[in-house]
Amino acid sequence: MADQTNNAVILPAIGKDFELTTRPVPVPGPDDVLVRTNFAAVNSVDRIRQLYGFQVPTTPKVIGNDTTGTVVSVGANAVSTYKVGDRVIAAADGVATGDDDHESYQNFVAVPTLTTAKLPENLTLLQGSTVATIALTASHILFDGLKFSIPGAKEQTKPLPAAGSKPILVVWGGASSVGSLTVQLAHKQGFAVFAVASPRHHERLQKFGAEVTVDYSDPEATVEKLLAAAGQRTISYAADTATDPSKTLPHLENLLLKSAAATSSTAVPELAYVNFAPEHKWKEGITSGFVNIVTAWSDRKDISEWLFVSGNLTSWLADGTIVPPTARVIPGGLGGLKAALTESQGGLSGERLVLEVAQ
Q: In this protein, which residues make up the domain named Enoyl reductase (ER) (predicted)?
């Protein structure tokens, strides 16, 4: 490594502004690769960690989930899969382990091969920078939030849809980065996807596989349009990927309960949601599941293995089955994090904000 300076963003204390510092270059463990970060995508959980200390065991603390760059060192158990010079995308596990060496807002980050994938040649590093964590989140929506069995798992307690059955899954917030990946992944896994989003994103979501697209601007009208589109089919599943679930969860609950009543369904409808909703009062008759990808490196390693280790994510990016959100670089390198988080507070659609860590 010609330049071994490791610049990093740290949170000096809960509720304080981020600061730039330098720290030692991480040493990868046996199951890790060390990545020289070119781009790091910004996540909404960064703000939650900053303000409320979510998954911040001590301060000062390096943070960051997504990294895209080039492998510069390989752990002993990873040499059969990765080599120096490989271009990779990864979901860093520092949010789960608390290890600063495994957080992405720094020049060099150690990432586990469990949540690392090779970037196919058809994508640039910038194009690939937006996808790792949100693809993991979309997978957790299906296999953790909604409890479907992973394809190929020995125990198929709740198999994915049989060919041609196409149960309806409503994705409210379909134009968000997680929403767009959920639309694509759910379509691939056999669901009839109904996406709720601004009309300017409808054509794109239809290309991603959405069978029905509905405007979100009048939620009560949105519910009625979704019910009309479903006809005699029951809407049994929903995913809330919107920025503020307090504004969307009540309407999704109404949708699921109305659909069950209209079709005389006795099945309990299910709803997965990705953003915190601690004050929401849940209605009876619905099963809800909060999607927390912190378990990707512990209880739900099986999801990570299915997405990353198996090569699925690399293959889907290569053949266009999965299309990453557009990346928009915020100026200032690592120093642009504050501006990026401020801009992302109102929610983003069709794109993700990215820091250019190294050229």
A: 15-355
Nearest to 186 by CA among 150, 206, 210: 210
CATH 3.40.50.720 in the chain: give the residue spans. Answer: 146-290
Q: Pick left, alpha or beta for residue 218 (phi over 0 → left; psi -120 to 50 → alpha; otherwise beta).
A: beta
- Specify the CATH class of 146-290 in words: alpha beta
CATH fold of 6-132+304-356 reads: Quinone Oxidoreductase; Chain A, domain 1 (3.90.180)
Cβ atoms within 10 Å, residue 3: 9
pLDDT digits 0-9 by tens, 67-78: 999 999 999 999
Instruction: Judge residue 281's burial from the number of C-beta atoms within 10 Å of its C-beta, 0-12 exposed, 13-18 middle, 19 or more buried.
Output: exposed
CA atoms of 153 and 138, how far apart (whole Å): 18
Cα 106 to Cα 80: distance, rounded to the nearest angstrom? 26
DSSP for residue 335: G
Predicted TM-score (pTM) of the model is: 0.96
